[in-house]
Structure formats: structure tokens, C-alpha cells
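We emphasize that the prediction below concerns an isolated chain of 396 residues; any contacts that depend on oligomerization or on bound cofactors are therefore not represented. The input was used exactly as deposited, without trimming of termini.
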Amino acid sequence: MVMISIAKLLLVICGLVVLLFMGRETSNRNPLNGLFTPIAVVVAFFAFATSLLWTVAPQAEALGALAKYGKLVMMVLMVVIIRDRREAIVALGVFVLAQTLLVMSSWLLFAQLPVPWASSHLALTEYAVFSSYLDQGIMGAVLAGICWHLRQLAPGRFGSQLAIFVALMALANVLFVLSGRTAHVVAIALVSLAIMWELPKKYRPVIVVLPFLLAMGMFFTSTKVRDRLTLVQTEVQLYSSREAPATSSGIRLNLWRTAIDSMRLTPLAGAGVGSWSPVFNQLQRQRNSAHVDINSNGNPHQEYLLWGVQLGVPGILLFLGLLVSIWRDTVKMEKPYRHAAQSTLAALAISCLFNSSIYDAQIGDFFCILLGLLLALGLKAPPNQPAVPPQFKQLA
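Result of the prediction step, given as a C-alpha cell string:
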């Protein structure tokens, strides 16, 4: 986390320097012109900052939560700092190599081989290398999609085949080694999208049933997927019948119900940035006087509801607007870059249904950096070549 924080600080400094010199060079075209993502990021951050005026959270907690949303700026900084497509390919290549090392390390742990750099307390039991199997599984599923859609960018005679191998290795790691249920859902969704994009347009409506067919296939072939899906059913039934949230699914359902109750109290403005823990503790104490307060800067394990608690219904609309803005910018890209970016965006949207994937530190940094790299890759022109206007790009 210290290394990540230092790297983010250096990224912000570099971005500010580039923007400063860009303002002095009148001949340079602003790389953010015509993009929707920077506007959405600024509006969202401004909304959270403004909510400091009415937040129910202590000031330190509120400022800490606001800083967490500062990572959204990294998407914009990547587009500013990276000058052309060659630089974007190099940067993304380094990113993919690091993620490949992560997947290979997980396979080594699964094979009971020593991995000295594995620091997670789940390394020996759940084969997670640095964080949790939940975060690592989502990262692996996204890596598989990136390697598949951008396989033609891999260098060397057998680069494309190697990229496909890495994609399959990452996908198998998610579905057969790691236990994260969100990652299983993300993997099935990204495979469904990849198949849909490879099909002729007249067959693309098959996407409606394809995820269910893939899920059924994985249910019968992967013990990890089958056990975790069965566990969800059991936990939901327990919660529904006994109001017993002492399970993973039960805890989430209780958090989501509390988040909705909070939104009913302040539907228009929310309770302010960083307010989840104080609001949750207050509502739980009303139901149970013996409630033990949760730690500060918690979250309801659902990004949409988290924005709703802090900013009311407009907060959910803001988050949806952010996702739509990124999607609109990806539409301008050529096909392989567009598919890679949109599959990553789909993974983020799905992950946020079950976790606070922007608010959380590690997985949030992963998505913001990767989306920034993919936006830079798809929107930048090759060296010494002007950018092609979007209206002249041929979309699939």
C-alpha cells in the first residue's frame, strides 16, 4: 500500500507538470478535448467535496473518504501523460506483465510451491498472492479479456498465441483455483461478451442466454463455481428464513437493506461523504441496542448504494453517468481497443454490484489505472500520425 500511494503521488505530480507545460505550448492540442470521462470525474469529485458541508461523518473520516475517490483522477491523468499509442502499448504491456506474474504466482501456490513474495494471509489456503482472492479473481478475469482482445499487439512471432495462453491461464485460475464468486460472475460475463463480439451480428442476440449456458456448464465442471453458487443459495435462504446475517451473503443483504433505509431518510442530498459507518451504526442501534459499532470508512459492499448513501439518489445517477461517460469515450475507438476497454468497464460495473470496487483501495486502483491506460491506447494516434476523427472510424 505504501508503494501504491507513492506511485499515485508521483503520477499526480507528473500529470500536473504535463498540464502546466501544455498550457504554455499553444501548439499542443489538449488530449482531453471531446472526452466525456474527465467531465464526469470532475463533477463526481466536486459533488463529494461539496457534501463535506453536510456530512454526518467526523471530519477526518470524511476527508479520508474523499481522498479515496481521488483515484478517479488517475484515469484522466493517464490520457494526459501518455503522448501516443506506442507509449500506451508499452505502459499497458508492463501492466499486463505484472498481472501475469500475479496469476503465475497463484498457480505456483496452488501447486504447493514456495512463493517468497506472497504476503497475503490467504496465500496458502486460497492462493491469493497479495490481497484477497476476491480482488485477485476479478483482476485475473479482466486480464484474460485484455489478453484476448489485444492479442495482436503482443510482440514476437508467437506473441498472439502467447497472449491467448495467458488469457486461458488467467481464466482457469479464476474458475478452478480461486473462490471469489464475484470473479466467477465477471469471468462468465467477459467470456460471453468475447463470444458475442466474435459472432456475426445476426447471431449476437444469443448473448441473452449465453451467460446462463456458461454458468450451467461451469456449475457441472468446476467444483469451485458449484460450491460457491450452492453456498449463495444456502446463505440467502438462511437470511430469508431466520434473519441471520452471519454469512457472507447474509451480511451483504443486511448492509444493502440498511443502505436503502439510509437513502429513504436523505434521498436528495445523502448523508455526505464518508457517512456510511456513522449512518450504519445509528440505524443498527435503533434495531438492536447491543449493536457493536463497525470501524470508520466502512462500506456496504455495493458501490451504487454507497454513492446513494453519501449523495442520495443523485449519487447513484452520478455513478451511472460516470460509467456511461467512459463507455461513450470507448465508442470512438477502433474495434480491438474498444472491446478491451468495454469488457473492463463491464467488469467494473458488475463488480460494483457486489463490492465497493471504486472505494476499495487495491481493486479501485486497478480499475482506474487500467481504464486510463485503455482510454489512452484507444484514443491516441500512433507516433507522428494525427488522430483519426471519430466520424471516420469504422465501428464493428
